[in-house]
Amino acid sequence: GILFRDIFPIFQDPKAIEMLVSHVVDHINATIKEKVDVIVGLDARGFLFGPMVALRLNAAFVPSRKKGKLPGKTLSADFKKEY
């Protein structure tokens, strides 16, 4: 099954946030040699960290949610849950 963890305590520690975002950006830069144009943040935790990562990479940020949950023009794709 899926194991959910409380990630909100990290937001109480600016150094921890900086470390997390830096590690994610370093991993992306080490594994993807081309310029990253877009970071897609999956609902809802991705909305918290995605913009910070995108900013560091000078990339756009795109939120991803279930159909009908975002305002404005959207794209959609079919998917299957892993559980």
Automatic annotation (TrEMBL):
Its main location: cytoplasm. One of its GO terms (biological process) is purine ribonucleoside salvage. Its EC number is 2.4.2.7. The keyword Transferase applies. Pathway: Purine metabolism; AMP biosynthesis via salvage pathway; AMP from adenine: step 1/1. It is an enzyme of class 2 (transferase). CDD domains: PRTases_typeI. It is found in: Cytoplasm. GO terms for cellular component: cytoplasm. The keyword Ribosomal protein does not apply. GO terms for molecular function: adenine binding; adenine phosphoribosyltransferase activity; AMP binding. It catalyses: AMP + diphosphate = 5-phospho-alpha-D-ribose 1-diphosphate + adenine. Keywords: Cytoplasm, Glycosyltransferase, Purine salvage, Transferase. Belongs to the purine/pyrimidine phosphoribosyltransferase family. This is adenine phosphoribosyltransferase.
